[in-house]
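Q: How would the structure tokens look for this protein?
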Amino acid sequence: MNYGRFLITLISVGVEIYVWLILARVILSFLRPRTFNPIIRFIYEVTEPLLALCRRLLPGPALDLDFSPLLAIIFLEIVKYVLINLVQRLLL
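A: Here is the predicted structure in token form.
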């Protein structure tokens, strides 16, 4: 088995899942559901650390819009690109 390709797939799938969780949170923020649901609580708990970091990096909210999900997704895609290139150079 080629561990480099497996690692690349793992990185890609992991980032993709996290991006989908962020998008789910964005949609949930418009619906404002009750947070006692374990799935909703899981989504918020998993995405909050990265989104909180992004909120600290951004200036105050513009027009009451939170751009931290967009910044988080851009950051995740950059990290994915860097990690995949690193794996390709070292293991393939």
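The first helix runs from residue 3 to 31.

The chain has one domain: 3-91.

Upvote if useful.
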